[in-house]
Amino acid sequence: MAPVATPFFFYLLSGIMLIGGVLVITRKNPVHSALALIVTLLAQASIYLMLYAPFVAGVQIILYAGGIMVLFLFVIMLVSVDRVQRERQFNSQWVVGIIAATALGGLFMAVYTKGKDIFPEHALPMVENDNTQQIAMKLYGQYMFAFEIASLLLLVAIIGAVVMAKKRI
Amino acid sequence: MFAYIKSYLSSAQTPGAAGNMFWVLVYILVIFTGLAIAVMLMTWLERKVLAHMQVRLGPMRVGPHGLLQPIADSLKLLLKEDIMPAEADAFVFWIAPFIVVLAAFTVFVVIPFGPTHAITDMNIGILFMLGVSSLSVLGIVMAGWASNSHYPLIGALRSSAQMVSYEVAMGLAVVSAILMTSLNAEGTGTLSMIGIVQAQLAQHEWFIFKFFPLGLIAFFIFAVAMIAETNRAPFDLAEAESELTAGFHTEYSGFRWSLFFLSEYTAMIAVSSIAVTLWLGGWLRPFPNLLSGPTWDRAFSLFPGIAFLFLAAMCFFNTARMPKHPLFRIQTIGLAVFGIVLGLIGLILFIPAVSMRVQDIFWFSAKVGGFMYLYIWYRGTFPRYRFDQLMQMGWKVLLPLGLGVLILTAGVALLQQKLWHP
Amino acid sequence: MESMLHITTLHYLVLGAALFLLGVIGVLTRRNVVIVLMSIELILNAVNLNLVAFSRMWGGLHGQVFAIFVITDAAAEAAVGLGILIAFFRNKETVNIDEVNLLKW
Fold first, then answer.
1. Are B144 and B248 in contact (CB under 8 A)?
2. What is the full per-residue pLDDT of chain C (105 aa) written as tens digits?
3. What ipTM describes this predicted complex?
4. Do chain B and A touch: 3 or more Cβ pairs under 8 angstroms?
5. CATH classification of C2-98, choosing from 1.10.287.3510, 3.30.465.10, 3.40.50.970, 1.10.8.60?
6. CA B348, CA B351: separation in Å to the nearest integer?
7. Chain A residues with beta carbon closer than 8 angstroms to that of B19
8. Which of A59, A61, A131, A154 is most worth mutating to test chain B (most B CB atoms within 10 A of its CB)?
9. Where are the domains of chain A?
């Protein structure tokens, strides 16, 4: 299926993502930050669809927006006391933080303006009918070892999270 | 302009795949209207069927046999006062029912009512459906938190913990059904909903009967998990009236509450559609390969008309049984008119041109309707699970069972590929 | 203006860099530990966007597979991080990152 109105959707979605990102880092109430992050993640899933990556978009919606953010909301509800919201928002080294972030931003701008020509055009539009099948071939063929290690990592993370959050070990 | 509209009618694709925006909008409107009517019908049906199971009559006053009760309910909910708790977070309180309704309705983008009767056919169809239906957990958590009172908070935490736990079991059952789609000549399966039903057509077997009893156990796991996923009896601890006042939607009144109610029934229809598509052959009529050919097709295509004529006959029968009191005259006339309307729809459905197109939708809706009746039956029959029993069943019973079915299905499928296509 | 209308890989990379920058600002300047963790998720998402954009540019699917691994790792890290946060909160009754100073002299 031919892509339609790509610039419009790209600018709309990137605007949503950037506004969501700004809201994440500037809201006082952590629940509002979590909601803004959910909006950003969903907009990012749509951008993955524009980049001919439907499987990654589906994984992003299920895992990130539907799993990790639920976890964040649970913990925010457990941890947020009213006292927290009336305190100051920014920590005591925020000046140094802003300077470091500005330096990083300058570095990015330098890289992307000087190196504008080393990124060639897109390849031909990728077929997305068998995206899932091809990812499966790569995942269980070439990257099988990484797959097994990722499952081991998840096991370790589960045990670690349970031990960390228990009342009595 | 007309050529653009007509160009779709001769294509053999879903409107999304064909890129035809006008027909996409038409399909969206039709599905939205159909869902609204289906939800209203479900509320009436639930009260009547539960009542008859409890040897009483249910709503009988509002229309003939209570048929206008859903309309009265919706009017009441629209006119109720909209209360917001004083300390509640206004923005989150406002947006929570919105998110739940959005998640419930977006799922219908990929549900196939026929080989070309879907809004679009994404090639990650089932993944998209599972992902979007997991977004409703977020809405519930936010509803409970924003109400700023303990019953909704506990109800929301319990409800979302339950939904997240049973999503895992659902996912495993879905994966073992998807495995069965890869038993074709090329050895590639598909995640697209239309592809799954076509795989069932090509393999001459509904997936519920495949590799007996593995398909049946996978279907059973999904059937149990989908009831827990939609917070219905017997897993409705989080919203039962005797337990937690009303769970996460205690503080919602009027139109906001009706949004939660609407999304609950829509989610029920959505997960039933997943079950029907994956295991019960979607839009396929019974025995599409065994009893094939134009005469059998013609015979089976009479079913929609016969169903509606049967409903019309029931209406006329009950009209005759109405009390012969002058105060009941309007209800009797109303029931007779309803029967005539149903009869006319049935007669229209006998026209071959109409029934050929509508047949797939009819079989799909009939199967989903069967699931809806099962939902009501479970509510009238089973006692409620306690919350720790619920979580125990999700993690300690359904999850190992799902893993076992998945491993066995994969093993048997591999064996079949090796033995029959070496 | 024409170069703005034709969306190339560079557009996606710049978007990823902007998200990364927002995440870095969030990590370095906020007090609330939960928001710092959410900014880390923003950084990981920016990296994912870069990976998938490059996968589109070169036509292979290696970038997408790696992005799936990054999402998996982000889930694991969020779980452990939030577990640590809960343990920390139980000890000190605050989510202020300036108060993590028990080892300070």
1. yes
2. 556 777 888 889 999 999 999 999 999 998 888 999 999 999 999 999 999 999 988 888 899 999 999 999 999 999 999 998 888 888 887 778 777 777 777
3. 0.91
4. yes
5. 1.10.287.3510
6. 6
7. 1-2, 4
8. A61
9. 1-86, 127-169
